């Protein structure tokens, strides 16, 4: 399997997995905040139908990298490519319009609204004809039917009733709603930021299964997580950040969790 050391931000030498064309590629991203260097020439490749985990110690640049990939931050230097075409995201809406959906740790769901309304939050569909075009009446029935179909397609069996307010759901179910929303509209890439944080074992396993279902549907996933067992459970490749750089890209087959932690801390060079 493929391993790579990348202190200079260069893409690793091609291996079996890299013969494919990346759906998302970052090349030598640099982001500074005054004298603080958030990213120092970081490169990243995400391939179709894979789960790419991003790990690193606090301050390693994980959040900054994700923000640059999703339009929340604009890199000072470097290039981004989506489907091998250069893209320049100036805000999160630009990334969403391009098909990159992000689920942050705080979920950004509306507790008072039901499951279906949360899936279509900000993308509400109107009724056909004059009711929708003139009076802007929301097609609640149609959205609920589409919500049921999306949850079923993702294999989410814990949300049978899409009319239930989100405030009545468990933490794992709320995470499922947020991920389902991303999957429904993220035609290219889904980014998950600490999706199992603060969840119990059972609910965490449900979220991990949801990630596998996304991959099985051909949707590539970027997973940011501090939970190493979860990372090694679902990730196909693991991008390791250290001190604002990409320290290595490894796989669960090529390295152990102990190896990954050692690379994160600088005790081991890949």
From TrEMBL:
CDD domains: ABC_Carb_Monos_I. InterPro entries: AAA+_ATPase, ABC_carbohydrate_import_ATPase, ABC_transporter-like_ATP-bd, ABC_transporter-like_CS, P-loop_NTPase. Residues 1-20 are annotated as: Disordered. Residues 24-268 form the ABC transporter domain. Residues 1-12 have a biased composition (Low complexity). Keywords: ATP-binding, Nucleotide-binding. Pfam families: ABC_tran (PF00005). One of its GO terms (molecular function) is ATP hydrolysis activity. This is Sugar ABC transporter ATP-binding protein. It comes from Agromyces fucosus.
